[in-house]
Design goal:
Blueprint lengths: L7 H12 L13 H8 L1 H8 L2 H7 L5 H24 L12 H4 L2 H12 L3 H4 L4 H16 L4 H27 L19 H13 L5 H35 L18 H9 L6 H9 L2 H22 L1
Helix pairs in contact: 1-11, 2-12, 3-12, 5-7, 5-9, 5-10, 5-12, 9-12, 10-11, 10-12
Bound molecules: protoporphyrin IX containing FE (HEM).
Protoporphyrin IX containing FE (HEM) binds next to helix 2, helix 3, helix 4, helix 10 and helix 11.
Amino acid sequence: MASDLETSEQLDEAEKNSYGEPEQENHTSPTDLSELLKEGTKESHDRAENTQFVKDFLKGHINKELFKLATTALYFTYSALEEEMDRNKDHPAFAPLYFPMELHRKEALIKDMEYFYGEGWKDQVQCSEATRTYVERIHYVGQNEPELLVAHAYTRYMGDLSGGQVLKKVAQRALKLPNTGEGTQFYLFENVTNAQQFKQFYRARMNALDLDRKTKDKIVEEANKAFEYNMQVFNELDKIGSSLTEEAQDGEVPVHDGKGDLSKCPYYAAKLGAGEGSGCPFHQAVALLRQPSLQLVLAACVALAAGLVAWYIL
Ligand code: HEM
């Protein structure tokens, strides 16, 4: 069954009729799925809020390259999620939560990707490792355990509806994006007039699903997994962000110890471009010192210098 609220006018009406009254919000029981999810993912939520990437983002410590990668991760995640939601739109364990008009983010993310990468964006981006693991789980759930799909929808859409406006403002300010919305379409739920009311409405829909306690517990467990997948993506972005920051030190040559990936050395990159021997003074010195003949000459020089110093002192 598809959503029986086909237009946003109907949804507005439903929001008003069912959730406009404050007393309605108290009619929950601890065994309602919405309550089990809220309580059961509290710790995960705290941990997600406290990941370095999220904390930095909230402080506006994000650069455009990293934001583009975060948008890419969201694009792949929502493509998978919405593909599986479309697949299960008539499944009784998901149908009442199918709101493509109001919630789906893929089209908005495509606009953001076009804005950041240009028309040929698809050829320029790839799905990161952590995002791929998340995406694979979403597909597995959608195809094998559709009753758990609600966990993935809950974790993302309820979070997006809760923090979207704040995150949008942070991104616009930090990256100097236009306040007309280019690059931040993801955060704009055009067809949700009141996010707070919609969330109440969505909770009521979750609570009306015909589920036994065991399945509800499995959904909470899956939601905790979904939080975990998100944290893995944040941690991956944080790592990439740190290396981007190091490389972006204006005009500075990154300090390195000769270990690690030689191809990341800027002199090495220059050498590849010029097709000559390595121009990096550090790598050249290390290479020279590795030659036994030079080591012998160097040892002789040190011994001679030590002898001269001893002769002078005595
Ligand atoms: C610093 C980052 C974050 C802050 C400040 C934050 C803040 C909040 C707040 C205040 C609410 C309650 C909204 C309400 O009840 O109306 C909320 C709900 C929620 N957030 Fe976050 N959040 C953050 C990050 C995240 C992340 C990273 C995720 C998941 C990937 C997430 C998922 C959720 C979910 C699923 C809910 C709904 C809880 C429920 O009512 O059952 N949040 N968040």
